[in-house]
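ugh ok fine here u go
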Amino acid sequence: MLLAKSKNGNTAWHRASIKGILEAFEILWLWGKKTGLNPDDILLSKNEEGINVLHCVANGNQLDILQKFSVCAEVCELNPKELKKILLFSKSKEGCTVPRGTQQHKRET
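structure:
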């Protein structure tokens, strides 16, 4: 259930990040930890457009969730260099990286 995807490939993690609901993100994180989900499966999952949870957080300017995301990555002892490579330079199908998507969002608002 925690990794189930919608018809667009979004997980509950994507939805919580898109909507900016920190409490939902925290609850999902706790459930994931209790069920023994691999943090990589949670944080690195991409939807059909190639967008991962960090893309959603950055594009929505969800700073509270971004901070929680950082804490989760530290708690799980995920390799910072690997995270940087996978998350910050990961491209969506449109070719957007997280920093580029954030810049586009700023121009639109």
